[in-house]
Amino acid sequence: MADIIQLLPDHVANQIAAGEVVQRPASVVKELLENAIDAKATSVTLVIKDAGKTLVQVTDNGIGMSVTDARISFERHATSKIKSAEDLFNLHTKGFRGEALASIAAIAHVELKTKNEDSEIGTHLTIEGSKVISQEPAVVPKGTTISVKNLFYNIPARRNFLKSNPVETRHIIDEFHRVALAHPNVAFQMLHNGSDVFNLPSSNSRQRIVNIFGSKTNEKLVPVSEETEILKINGFVLKPEFGKKSRGEQFFFVNDRFIKSAYLHHAVASAFEGLVKNDIHPGYFLFLEVDPHSIDINIHPTKTEIKFDDEHSIYAMLRATVKHSLGQFNIAPILDFERDKGFDTPYDYSKKQPTAPSIEVDRDFNPFREKAKQGNINFPFKREQSQSWESLYVGLKDDAPAISSLGDIEFESEEVTGNLFENPETETGQISFQIQNKYIVSPLKNGMMVIHQNLAHQRVLYEELLKNITVKEAVSQQLLFPLQLHFSKPDVEIIEKIREQLEHTGFIFSQLKDETIEISGIPVLILESHVVNLLSQLVHDIKEEVPESGFSQNDMLAKSMAASMAIKTGISLGKEEREHLINQLFACKEPSVSPTNKPVFTILEVNDLDKKFM
């Protein structure tokens, strides 16, 4: 039998490796930014076009590369970070696999310009699909510039799996945040399609967080700091009242490397126990420093998960440190052991012996006597002589109506009934009940119907909002004092993109720039106090999955706003409100399902009830 096992060609092996290294344009951004940091750069510029599908370019002022290094850097398993297997457990750099540039060059058009400090002239290298097209000297500044164009040009199937541009841009911004937060001493700049997205000067950790997430973030931060023999913790946690339903602002860094750890997240969440609700996630920016020999970062293809030697001790220290910071800055309730001077013994009585108090009682006292009999006890006061108790009835009219029978007596006590439902209605017409402030029960001819009030209201609001956005007719209520809301710059840009649709629902924006949003009018269906939560949830939903412009985007906006504005579970509804909601529901086009395709109501027939008692 002939041999059937053979070695793969290099360009095929590189494409297979690229499947692990390069999943989307954000993966390219991560690898190139980390290479710039390892090159000791103090200034890094990221330029992307069409969410990185057309161009990803990273320029740094690092140490650069020689002609030989520039050429060999695109070979598989070529790296300057490690030389032996022992070096894997003493890593102080980002990239160490030697597959990043080789994988990127296998699936894109790559152009490299670099020069080190000792060389008078640099190198210009062009590679397409792992094939070197040209290599020639060039006059370039010190540092390195790598341009990755037409990502996945030779793998169309992979390119078709990419999401829409807004979604891919969000992933790129996430990777940019992770690198920028880990290195506040490095200046970063990011441009997308020619517009400036971030311009972060060199600063400290707190200022870097504020520059990325907005100026209002400064007042939300609580410092965290602790140093032990095995662990050093620095960073910030957000105050409990600024927790979110989504896991957005949660960052762990171990030795300046971003990681994901459900175990460490549980430690932080347990420190916030009792301060936030169960469905609210606290935010944090925590930087951990440990001995490189005590961790293993080579357990995951993307290197975002690591293994600790003594994770139980790290868990306990992290939890205790966060809890201590929350108490130290009066965020969490603590016991106050300070002595109150008001309870101190006065100086004049400090040397006197305490005496037992004595009580003297006049046992012959009778308030109904004309004159109280005085005993041998001398009282310090003299009780005034009062009229006898019979005088209380003097002056009453004798012609008061007499009670003929007990039936004429009216009692003020409330009648006790054993009703199963809240607020039962016995009037003629439609009768409805509310159970646990969650379900509405309405009787039918052959049984009863149970309606989920939150999902029913979502369906009503969804169709109304979708109609307003499409028809562009909505009623707005003017605010006496405009609302000024503060969001991060990327969030404001998201709201700017959907401004027209929001205005069709009833919002009126008087100002929308930088990190400030000023609203002078809101839809009549929502309260002024709910605007912040509604817009925050809307921005979160858009970040998760943004459809292309058109009906699909309007549909997503209507779903998100309906979920935020709908009546929540636990709200008690009166008879008129219940009847109005039922009538609105069955006036909808699809009353049986919610906007997220959940059943809105169910019908229990008499036969179904009879079977329960067989």
UniProtKB/TrEMBL annotation:
<protein>
    <recommendedName>
        <fullName>DNA mismatch repair protein MutL</fullName>
    </recommendedName>
</protein>
<dbReference type="InterPro" id="IPR020568">
    <property type="entry name" value="Ribosomal_Su5_D2-typ_SF"/>
</dbReference>
<dbReference type="InterPro" id="IPR020667">
    <property type="entry name" value="DNA_mismatch_repair_MutL"/>
</dbReference>
<dbReference type="GO" id="GO:0004519">
    <property type="term" value="F:endonuclease activity"/>
</dbReference>
<keyword id="KW-0255">Endonuclease</keyword>
<feature type="domain" description="MutL C-terminal dimerisation">
    <location>
        <begin position="431"/>
        <end position="573"/>
    </location>
</feature>
<dbReference type="Pfam" id="PF13589">
    <property type="entry name" value="HATPase_c_3"/>
</dbReference>
<dbReference type="InterPro" id="IPR002099">
    <property type="entry name" value="MutL/Mlh/PMS"/>
</dbReference>
<feature type="domain" description="DNA mismatch repair protein S5">
    <location>
        <begin position="209"/>
        <end position="327"/>
    </location>
</feature>
<keyword id="KW-0234">DNA repair</keyword>
<keyword id="KW-0227">DNA damage</keyword>
<dbReference type="Pfam" id="PF08676">
    <property type="entry name" value="MutL_C"/>
</dbReference>
<dbReference type="Pfam" id="PF01119">
    <property type="entry name" value="DNA_mis_repair"/>
</dbReference>
<dbReference type="InterPro" id="IPR014721">
    <property type="entry name" value="Ribsml_uS5_D2-typ_fold_subgr"/>
</dbReference>
<keyword id="KW-0378">Hydrolase</keyword>
<dbReference type="InterPro" id="IPR042121">
    <property type="entry name" value="MutL_C_regsub"/>
</dbReference>
<dbReference type="InterPro" id="IPR037198">
    <property type="entry name" value="MutL_C_sf"/>
</dbReference>
<comment type="function">
    <text>This protein is involved in the repair of mismatches in DNA. It is required for dam-dependent methyl-directed DNA mismatch repair. May act as a 'molecular matchmaker', a protein that promotes the formation of a stable complex between two or more DNA-binding proteins in an ATP-dependent manner without itself being part of a final effector complex.</text>
</comment>
<keyword id="KW-0540">Nuclease</keyword>
<dbReference type="InterPro" id="IPR038973">
    <property type="entry name" value="MutL/Mlh/Pms-like"/>
</dbReference>
<dbReference type="InterPro" id="IPR036890">
    <property type="entry name" value="HATPase_C_sf"/>
</dbReference>
<dbReference type="InterPro" id="IPR013507">
    <property type="entry name" value="DNA_mismatch_S5_2-like"/>
</dbReference>
<dbReference type="InterPro" id="IPR014790">
    <property type="entry name" value="MutL_C"/>
</dbReference>
<dbReference type="InterPro" id="IPR014762">
    <property type="entry name" value="DNA_mismatch_repair_CS"/>
</dbReference>
<comment type="similarity">
    <text>Belongs to the DNA mismatch repair MutL/HexB family.</text>
</comment>
<dbReference type="InterPro" id="IPR042120">
    <property type="entry name" value="MutL_C_dimsub"/>
</dbReference>
